[in-house]
Amino acid sequence: EEEEEEEDLKLGDLVLNTPSLDWVVVPEESDRVICSKGSPPRLTFRERGAILRACSVDLSSHEENSVLSTSPQHFTASSDGVKSQEGSQEFKGNKDIFSFHSSFNSALLEGKKAGKARLEARREIHGKLERAILEAENLKQMAFQESVNRWKAEEDAMDAKSKAEAEESKYHKEMKRRKEIEEEVEKQSLEYERFKVEHEDYRRELLMVQDQCSALKHQMRESELNVKEFEEKIISAAQLLISFKEKRDQLRIERDKAIQELEILRRMKQQRTAMLSAPQFSTFSLTEIDEATRSFDPSQRIGDGKYGSVYKGILRHMEVAIRMLPNDGSQGQWRFEREVETLSRVRHPNILMLIGICPEARSVVYEYLENESLEDHLVSKGRYPPLKWQTRVRIAAELCSALIFLHTNNPPIFHGNLKPTKILLDANLISKIGDLGIFRLIPQNQIPPISRTVYTDPEFLETGVLTADSDVYSFGVILLLLLTGRPPSGLVKDVRSALRKDKLGMVLDSSGGDWPIYHAKTLAWLALRCCDRKQSNRPDLASEVWSVLEPLRKSCDAGASCLEKQEKRQPPSHFICPIYKEVMQDPYTAADGYTYERDAISGWLDSGHKTSPMTNLELSSCDLIPNHALQYAIQEWLQTA
């Protein structure tokens, strides 16, 4: 009995120790019971008690059937029925539990009497009871999960229904909007048709207006021009009105300035007129000529010819060449001075400058060139370094330029006696033609007969008429001399033969360097054309000869081998101002005979000096005389520098 009582107490504790949970009943679903903590529901106390009572009826055989009928498997089926019938059997289970409780009490009393034989049965029932409770727990969890799933499905269905209703509302709104748009489109279509009709009307009216547009445009252009003209006149008048007020004061100031400037211009014009009317050469006294030539000392004589002797000397501190001409008495004096004045106005960088004359000695003073003549460099070899071929090409171009200048002068000037001895070279090997127009300074009765030389034009020898082609013939022979460096006799024939045999290099002057054979042939053929015996076959200097020589000269000047151009040219000493030590721009001669820059000597005299800056002797006067001849010489030198 003690063991049975102990077993009963365990069963009671098992029922009493089942935790009592707080249940929350969902109002809309009466069969759904969930835990407030969110976990699946467990068996209620009553359900557990019903299972214990049903299991305790296993005391007798007829009660075993009752117990089996209320076993966990049967209860599981009952639970499934309860769920399938949506809670309709809950009340019926409670009734059975009460009836089963009374049966359980009676069976308990009878069991105590049965003793130890039933103890094992109770233990087995206890095990079954635990299993039944576990199965009931599982079944109830499954029922809860199904309820949750159904609840979620219903919520999803409600959401879907709400979305469907929202979409349906949108659809109705869209249909309404579409209907409005269609109505608006129809309205716009009607409006378009109306505009189309109006546009057609306007187009017809435009065509009618365009018919009148031409006349209106013409009138409008005329009106615009008139308006523009009037506006410009108004603006101009306004500007003039404003400017007149401003200029009124300016003109008063400018009037005084103009008066002053006019006075200055008048003085300048008078000075310029005096300079233009003044002779372009200086006049020297017989005493100066005698001192310059040391009384015509033979050691000072540098040349003799049919036109007189040439002396070297120093006049007014300038190194000069003095040619003594035959005397014609007093009757030819006026003609002599007139011809000298004409020749002195001929200024060219490659023509020897005429500085002045001495009427008493009937002499002409030229600038002196220290490198003597071209013949001295080509024929008299050994005295001077040989001329490079580039220098020879440049000399030919300079001669051509000077002859073109003379032939195009008004009236034309012909040299008539051009040959290497008449071509002088300065310190920088710049060529200058000398003895220009010398035959015009000699009395007609003293002019020597025409000499027959290789440089003289054959037709001139026959006719005695001097033309530009006569100088062209002489230039051709000089060009051949520059190419070959040979004596002029038979030179034309030799060069023509060498060209025909294609052996021009055999006759070229090798001392001039390596001649470019193509340029040399070009110059040789050009020279032979100039030396043609018929004047009509000779080329024109300006249009034919110059077009060949000028490009060759430029190529020589640009070449690195053109040493003459690379060296800095030194000005002649008489071009240098004794005070400033620079090339003079406006040379003036003082009473001491020296030539100075005008500003330099004027400043010297204005500072109170009465003596010469060079000799320190007292000046006889403070008068200054412009040295036009030296000024032109300096300008020519600067042009070729």
Automatic annotation (TrEMBL):
Residues 570-641 form the U-box domain. Its EC number is 2.3.2.27. One of its GO terms (molecular function) is protein kinase activity. Residues 66-88 have a biased composition (Polar residues). It catalyses: S-ubiquitinyl-[E2 ubiquitin-conjugating enzyme]-L-cysteine + [acceptor protein]-L-lysine = [E2 ubiquitin-conjugating enzyme]-L-cysteine + N(6)-ubiquitinyl-[acceptor protein]-L-lysine. SMART domains: Ubox (SM00504). Residues 296-553 form the Protein kinase domain. Functions as an E3 ubiquitin ligase. This is RING-type E3 ubiquitin transferase.
